[in-house]
Amino acid sequence: MKKKDLILGAGIIVIALAMLLVMQLTRGEEGNQIRVTLDGKIYGTYSLSKDQTIEVKDGDFYNRIRIEDGKAYMEEANCPDGYCEEQGKISGHTQTIVCLPHKLVVEVLENENDQSFGTSDPEDVAPDTIAK
Q: From what superkingdom does this record's organism come (predicted)?
């Protein structure tokens, strides 16, 4: 190998590492949100950057969603199976928590400013199937 080849290889590696660093620094978690959908209708949208508790009550049932350290999880629910409480913490796009008995969906929205992850039409964001 020649000295110029080594310099070229090192330069490419340095540029690649600089690009990775810039991507990580600009990505941030501040824009991440969750959307809670109840029976196909949007119940609310909440920031993952703020620790909070969301109580969803409808008739005889309730679900308590906790947002903590940039992650959301189902803290408590009075559904008969309790599977929603076992689904763990979510924080990345495409992750969801579903409570089928209560027809409740908690989904992560990656960035509120990114047009590819949401629309203003509620019909476009509603689940297309809910099974009993």
A: Bacteria
| DSSP codes of every residue in 4-17 | HHHHHHHHHHHHHH
Output the CA torsion 92→44→119→87 (10° steps).
Answer: 30
Q: Torsion angle of alpha carbons 88, 132, 101, 57, nearest 10°?
A: 120
- Enclosing domain of residue 25: 1-29
Contact 36, 106 (CB under 8 A): yes
Provide the whole-model pTM. 0.61
Q: Please state the domain count of the chain.
A: 2
**In-domain check, residue 122:** no
pLDDT digit string, tens, across residues 53-79: 999 998 888 999 999 998 999 999 998
Same domain, 53 and 106: yes
Would you say how long the chain is, in residues? 132
Q: State yes or no: pLDDT of 5 exceeds 90.
A: no
Residue from 22, 20, 21, 48 nearest 34 by CA? 48
- Pair (91, 77) in one structural domain: yes
The vertex-125 CA angle with 122 and 88, nearest 5°, equals: 130
